[in-house]
Automatic annotation (TrEMBL):
InterPro entries: CPA3_Na-H_Antiporter_D, NADH_UbQ_OxRdtase, ND/Mrp_TM. One of its GO terms (cellular component) is plasma membrane. This is Monovalent cation/H+ antiporter subunit D family protein. Residues 127-408 form the NADH:quinone oxidoreductase/Mrp antiporter transmembrane domain. It is found in: Cell membrane; Membrane. The chain crosses the membrane at residues 6-26, 33-51, 71-95, 107-125, 131-149, 161-181, 201-222, 234-260, 266-287, 294-313, 319-345, 366-385, 405-428, 449-472.
Amino acid sequence: MSADAILPVFVALPLIMAAVTTLSPWKRGNDALGLIIPAINLGLAIWLYSYTAEHGTISHVIGLYQGGVGISFAADQFSAIMLITTMIVALTSNWFASVAGETQARYFTPLTLVLITGVSGALLTADLFNFFVMIEVMLLPSYGLIAMTGTRNRLLSARTFVLVNLAASTLLVMGVGYIYGVAGAVNIAALRGAAAGNGPITVATGLVVIAIAAKAGVFPVHTWLPRTYPSTSAAVMGLFSGLHTKVAVYMLFRIWVVIFDMDARWNALIIVIMVISMLIGGFAGLAEHTMRRVLGYQMVNGMPFILIMLAFTNDDARYALAAGLMYTLHHMITIAALVLNVGAIEETYGTGTISKLSGLARRDPLTSAVFVAGAFSIVGFPPFSGLFGKVTIVLAAATPGDWRSWVAITTIIVASFGALLSMMRVWKRVFWGRPMQHYPKALNVRAKLLAPSALLMFMSLGMFIGAGPLWAASTAAVDSLLDVDSYTTAVLGDDAIGIPDVDTLQGGN
């Protein structure tokens, strides 16, 4: 069996196991599979990164159809490193769900496995329509997970989540349909550079980008994210934080490099949108009343730090994209750690409302230490991954030395200060202050509830200590993303059919 035949396994394995856990009444077995399957995908993703580092981009067409006809999967180091990190987040979130008792819900495990199916497929597909399909595979179990407890607040949040994502999905499939109508293909490799020189394709691809940006929680379609994610359980919010928005980041990077060919005409628009997103995400958390809603705005704040790098790819594409990727990896690990840490507090004390908690630093010193470590990381303080994540972004933004650099760096500093104020407010109100009198003194966060978030923060510490190897891995992944020739050759092969003439597309109006 050739190495590329492993790619469909990333999708098939969790999907089959989702069916098994749906039919199986054995809770312990289902809980075990909820951990084993993302662990297997994690191991395969590590192997995939190593293999693509040595052999370059690989591709597999389901049913061995010719290139351009069948359902194409493709993997390079960029998709592999994203798979590794998403599976780490999925594994730790499912671990927390198991110890917190969330898996008591009959269909929790199969829904999370279907979500992992969609994420894996979205990160490996080489076709825009199949990307839409995988996004829907992600969303369908998400609708169930977000409303699983059936409380009024979560059902209201589920309604908002469903409406926003249905609207974005409708726009996404319309954009994909328009691309096919004007280009005759939706294969990403076949559309190489098409949006850089053809007006109709640019507009159609723009609809796709807008839809993906909405799913990522980027301004001006961002308010739904901090309203809905914190209303779920902590384990589900942890899953969403590392999977939903980061799949959007992956595809925006891929579309920008391959289809838009890093067209400099959009740089100013990207900067304006991302600057506003940074400021909103940085300061809006100051008005929130629960810890997880504050973290929801830290998610909104993190996305523009990543995506603003697209506006600097014309100066040093390799450095800018590697900085964005390095910050992405840091953000996935750190936000998941903070969410699961706050989830442990909620499970213990029955609330995450800031005004109802105080004095946890004395009562739960280890839990408090994990939280402050996550806060340091998200703001960009040492010794955690956020420091080098933000330093590399600032250095990439400084490369051109023009107005873009001044605007971006100033906003990064101001937005980081806003994030610092938000996290300091939570620390002051929840962890400092007088000990709570209405809880037994013996009540503390259990070690097994704290362990998933603590493990993620140790990873963040390791990413700081190993910043050199992490940067090397990020730049190698970006090199594979920028090697569009290898990607195109791997996906389309030598006998592709039904592929439009790229030169003709680029010559459009």
